[in-house]
Structure formats: structure tokens, C-alpha cells
């Protein structure tokens, strides 16, 4: 019994696993121009099959083990059916016939078709295309040249009326198979070639990334379909020549230069700095194998280290070292490597690598071009290789460099073809990647000693999109404080309802007068420009009036959350040095009141009936408040265990509230239901109050879905913000609750598309918007209006920038990344906070210089969010670049909780993560380790720990 070679074994098992498929077909199309002897060509094909046993071998199975069974020449007849086509239909005919499915157990692994082309004119030469389709189990790319040479030799003989006279081949593929098994030995034999090479590759590929994280247009399917397509880019002769010279100067090859270039582009496209690619090697280590048709090719995993921002020349030297060592260990069959390393195997991706790199060098015996493009090999015919379109892709991406030389042997250019899996990629994505590869080659040969981060992979059109077209709408905003803006609005619409709850309305004139009086009182308590006033109150009209009064007094409000531990509130009071604390009756016995030494506590209990305010005028206090002074300080989670205050200015909030999005009628009556410590209140309060709308205050307490639905109806709400968690609950329990709304915004976490679909189906007139923005950029920085009809395959985009906002997607070196490529989101422009209160180091870390800003001194905020631009100019959220998490709209630093946990005497170590045991049900979970490996004491991390 003749076993299969190791490479054949892998293909055979894949064929059993995947079922009938044309994935591993090798099509060869040869255009024949002139007078063709069809009978001679048919006989010549039979001669080639007779000469090469591999082309008349079948692979039956016995007791679960496949074997090679060589058919006798008389049994191995090959037919040559004749088809017809025009030049316009040729590509489709070739594609259809190339998709022939072989039954390896009974079919010869080769098929042929002759396609007769309709004449272009009455005097045109006859045109035919010979299509030979081989299964990869019997052939490889290097087999094409000997096959064509033998076919031409046999055709010449048959045209002359005789059988070809050739020396028999020294060996056949079956001989090679037996020799390979003997040479490599067994993996468990310590001194065998196989054992030594396994040891090398095990060390070389340790820690290899499981998957190339390239930006795909669709999620990877559970099982790959292997459907594919191709795109091609031409690299001009000048760049080709410079690349050859650069490689030669580094003692490298053109292939190594191509590998360095591809790895650079893949790294810049999101693949990271450890970039594995597969590459075929001929596997014909003996001259006797050069004339055989057979599956000798092996695949090597070439790992490229792009870390440390090397120059292209330095990277080329790294690649040279890697490749020379790999080629010295090329005998280990790829399937045995996979078996030895045993990576996680799935049906959706190729093991060890997902990107293949090939190079066809001009003049090499490995390609069809040199053997096929001839005027003398086939008498009476001019021949050339015909492109045979493929509809399959064995890998996510195969990038092939095809080298051309001029007649005098000089570089004539490179054709770079990308074969890609259509499961994952759209043609536009692959075309963009090829374009970046072309620009990289141009940049690299021009600047080989420039760090890779300094090589510009963007073209002018992309740069214009990123820095101009896709920025937020330029909208003029008055250069005034929020107090001035509200006063102006009250003068325009004095009788309009500004504030309402439970049927009790307050007009703009009434709110203006009442808040002026309270502002005068606060001024009498020492509140002035940028004086912080802490606010510990439940949701009520008094809370809204208090915040507006603080603003009119020139002060800064700092919301306090009553459910936070007193220790956290004490830290906030200390950080802000607030001299005044507003509190309502419901919270007048809060623990913080006894700890707030040196703070004037003011009870707010019905401002419209407070006799103390009667002594103060209804006119606005004379306070010189600059728009760039603080308006509020909102505290977020801190990685060190200490909350950090984000200082937001009047201008920041004015830019948000006067964004064109809020001028839509849907935002004329907005529900204030969020905790005032949550930055969504910036929209809920200031957007309506500065545009003549109404703030409807929800009842005190937590709203369940039923209560929320009731409030929406009772208050005739038109505009609403909800966290993703609450939006999802409403979608599940009562999606029609939003039917009376004009617009609902949701965000703070990934929005479930199915929840949005349910709501939109139940509310056909409703507009749903996915809003995104950190506290540091004043609530919202982007928005995406969900389109009808709903047709989203995956996550909703977070959209386009708000007015006067700039978005940058940058790499680790603050370089712009191309559309479709993952990077970290940086936000600049109108909403950018002044920084963190009293924390200059953290401010400098997150608020950094904007290298693309319109003026010197421009800043941008580093969000820590991984995103990418879509082709439509919208931002798509991909995940976090740091340890921060989002839960129910709040950004949380696990480090803050971990710091609090390890402060407990029985806790040595703590780790905090977000768990989602049920879809949409996210929880923070802490894992604790006691001192000396003991179990932490009961209560550690629960009631005893203040966070």
C-alpha cells in the first residue's frame, strides 16, 4: 500500500471534513491563437497523464486510512469536451468550469476543457482556450511549468503523427512519498529530522497570536465557506527596481522585502506587532523532483516582529534572519506542525495563520507565464496564459506578488493580487488595503531609514476625509455664560413652560425670577466665580432651580450621589473645597452632613415658597462669568481608588445644548429622570432650557418600565435619553411605551440591535439615536440616527461627531489610521473639558496636544476606546484599549474597586471584571485572594468595603 504524503494527508482529511468543494482546485488556462489540431491536443493530454503517475492516481480509503492507487495508463483516459464562448463570456465559463468538484476516491485528479471563442472578425485567427483543472492533492503551482513543457513536447509529436519520445522520469510521486516518510522519521524518535524540526518550530512559534485581528466587514462565520474573489494593484517599474536594490543592499531577497512590506501594512491595519503569515516553499529539495507534477509544496509560518517602531531597513534585516532560519527547517510538513503544536482548531479560520504571502519571480520555473507565453512550443499556435478567475479563497487573505522583467532583464513592475474571503471582506476593503500596500512600498524605498510610524500610508483623499469632511458641522455659538444664555432665552419666550412636574408648570419668566433670587442668596454666602457648591438632593424641580441658581451666581455645582458611601463623598468635598452644600429634606440626615466640617449646609425645601428669598431681587446678580470658567464638576471612577472630578465649562455645555440636533421638535419636551451625578442630565436640563423647551421632572426614585411608560404619557414627553440597560428592558417588556415620543437617545454601552429593532417595529414614527461620549467631552461627542428600514447585521455605529467636534482615530504613535482600520478614538473641539480637578498628572495623561488641531495649543482627549471609521464616515465602536469598563452608562475603573477591596485586612489580592451570564445582564464581579492563600473573611468585599 502506498501511503499519502504528509501534505496529501491534510488535504484528504480536509476534503472529508468539508465535503464536496472546489476550494483546492488549481485551474490553468492557456490561450491558443492559430490553427489548432484538436485531436493532437487530446492525445497530448493523454500522454502527459500517462507520463505523470500523480495525474492518474486516486485516493480510496481502506479501514479509515487513505492510500494512493495508481491507475494503469489504459484506464486513465482524459476527455477534452469542446465548449463555446465569446470574449465577454469567457471569464464566466472559466469560473464555472474551474469549480469542478473531484471525488478523490474514484476521479482522476485532472480535468480538461477546450473553449472555442467566437471570432472577433472574418479575418481573425482561430482562438481557443485550453482549461486544465487539477486537484491540489496531485499538483501545485511549481508543477505547472513541467506540465506545460511536457504538453508542448507531446503536442509537437502528435501533430507530426507520432507518439512523443521522452526519457522516462527518474522517479514518480509515489517514490517521493515513501522517501519522505523514511527521511523524516517519527516525531517520538529523539534524533529524527521530524523531532528536531518540531522542537525548532515549537520554540519559534511559542505565543503566536491565535487569529489575525484584521478589520473585517462582517463577523467571522462559524464555518468558513471558502468563497472568494480577487483584486489587483500594479506597482510601477521604478518602485520595483528600488525595492530590489534595497533588498540587495541588505543581503535580502525580493520576497523578504515583500514580506516586510505586507507585515507593515497588516500591523498598521490592526494586526498588532506580531504578524504571522504563511508562505509556500517548493519542497523540491532534489533536482530529480523538478520535472514532476505533484504536491510537493510545503507551507512555512513566517513570524514578523514589527514592534519597537523599526525603520523599514531594520525590519527587512529582522525578516531576513527569520526567513533564513525558517528555510533551514522547511522539511517539517505543515500538517505535522499543526498536529505537534495543537492550536485551538475551529471551522472558521486556518490554524497558525490566516494570511498567505506568495511571490512569483520573473523567469522562475514555478509559474505558468514563462512556460506558456511562447510562439514556438505549440507549432502553428501562439500561446499565453489566460487569467482564470477564482471564486474561492483558502485563507482570509492571500497576497501574491507577480514579478515582471523587461526584455533586457530589468525590473518591469509588480502585479500584487489579493485573493480574499468574501465571508469577511468587501471588495472596497481589500482595494483600500492594496492601495496602502502600494503607498508603503513607495514610501519605504524613498525613506528606508525612517521609522515605520513616519511612513505615510494615507492618500490625499483619505486625509481630507479624516481631517475635514468627517468633522462636525461648524455651528456658531454665542460667546456667553449659561446664565446669560438662559436669561436671553427667558426674554424671548417668557410665557413658555420651562419646568414642569405633575401638572405644576413654571414659565421661563417665573424660573428666571426665582433662580435670580436664589442666586443672590448664594452670593451672600460667598458663592462667586468658580466657587464650588456641592449638591446633595433628590430629583425635583428644586434641584433644577438650584443648579440654575448656582450658575447665575457664577458658581460651580458638584453633584453628590446619596447612595455613595460617606467616605467617597468626603473625598469629593475635600477635592472641591466646597464652602456650601445644598441638601433637601429627604437627605437632611445623611451621614456626610456630620462629616462635612467647615461647610455651610443650606436646606432647600420649596424654593418658590421660601420666605428667605423674598428679600432678594428678581433681577440677575451682576457676576462677570467667562464662558471658559467652570460650570460643574462631575466625579468619575479613578484607577487609583480615588474618584476624579471632571471640570466642565460654560462653553462646553453651551456647545452641547445648542447643537443642531436639539433644535428638532422632538426635543421640545424632555424628561429629566437621570441621577444628577450622571452627565446625561446635561442634555436633559440644558438642551431644553437654552432652546425654549420644557424640562419635565420625573418623580423621585427609581423608575421601572411601567412607571417610566406612565410618566412619558402623563408628561407628554417628546425627547428622552435612556441608558442601554433601561432601553433594553423597555424593549423587552413594553416596546410600545415610546410610541408618543419623537426621539429617544440611548447609549453608555453597546446598544443591542435586536432591542432597537423591537422598539422601532412597535413605534413606526419614532427616531432612535445611538449616542456616545465620555464625561470629559461633555456628555455626547457622536450620534448615529438609526435608519429605517432596520437593516443592521451587527452592532450599531456610534456615528458622526456633534457640531464643532473633531474625531481622530489614531495609532500608538498618534498617527491617523485609514478608514476601516482600528485605532484609539481621540476627541477634540467644543466639548473638551478643562481637565481633572486638582490632578495635573492625570490631566496631562488624558488631555494631550492635538497635532491636527486648527490652532497651536489645541488639545484632544484620549478616550481609551477602540474604534474605526466606516466607509460612510461613521465611527464603529470595537471595545476598550484600557481597563475601564462601562456598566449601565457609567464608566468604571476596576482599579478603584480593587484598591478598596485590598484595603480590607483579610484581602491580599483582588480582581474585578464585568460578567454577563445572561445577555444584557451585566454585573461587576470581584475575585479575592486572602493573605497567605487563605480565604478572605466573610464580608470582605461586601458590606464592609466602601467604594
Reported for the largest beta sheet, the result is: 5 strands, mixed
The percent range for helix content is 25-40%
Oligomeric organization of the protein chains: single chain
Q: Biggest sheet, strands in spatial order?
A: 6-7-8-1-13
Chain-averaged pLDDT: 92
Distance between the termini: 72 Å
Q: What is the C-level CATH assignment of the domain at 225-371 and 389-469?
A: Alpha Beta
Q: Determine the structural class based on helices, strands and strand pairing.
A: alpha+beta
Could you tell me the number of beta strands? 40
**What is the number of helical segments per DSSP (H or I, 4+ residues)?**
25
For the record, what is the CATH homologous superfamily label of the domain at 225-371 and 389-469?
Nonribosomal peptide synthetase, condensation domain
Architecture (CATH level 2) name of the domain at 225-371 and 389-469: 2-Layer Sandwich
Morphology call = elongated
Unreliable runs, pLDDT <50, ≥5 residues? 364-370
Strand content: 15-25%
Radius of gyration: 36 Å
CATH topology of the domain at 225-371 and 389-469: Chloramphenicol Acetyltransferase
